[in-house]
Amino acid sequence: MKTENWKFKVILFYVVCAIIIGYPFFTIKYFESHTALKITAKYLLLPIIICLLVILPRFYFKKVKPLDKVKRSKTKEKFSDFFSILFMLICSTGIFFGIAFSLIITTNKFFGKSESVIISQPIEKYTENITKNGRLRHYIEFENPKTNEIIVLEVYKKYKVGDVFQKEMKYGAWEILYSTE
Prior knowledge:
By secondary structure, this protein is of the alpha+beta class. It has helices at residues 2-27, 33-64, 74-110, and strands at residues 30-31, 115-122, 125-130, 136-143, 150-155, 164-171, 177-179. The relative contact order is 0.17.
């Protein structure tokens, strides 16, 4: 019964993580992902890794290792433990990085006052990309009128270089452009 309860908690954890990570992608139509990635990588990646390096070995030896019933030599056992913890570290870092990225996008929208701005900028670069699932994605680059940095946005139609991208957008709490329309 304890094993079933533990499995339920793990599944619940993954479901909550998926909801947190997916939320901004379903509620915010346009957002500046490059800036959010830079913020997450620069300020949160190292703390995430350090916390996981402290927590994961304890979690592994207390919760996961007792479930392993296979008998191995000491050397194989140590290699198995090392690679198990390393794999958990890589996967957990990806999950928590995704959560941090999504929380930055979400808090950008909900916290602070959102300053509205009408973007009317010429498109400097247009690229299209086909995903492995066959979905066509359109990306445009234009200059941010506030910071003069290049913004990369995923858009929902084809543009040409030189076309003017016009959209009412908002700057959120993290100074990241977004639009829910």
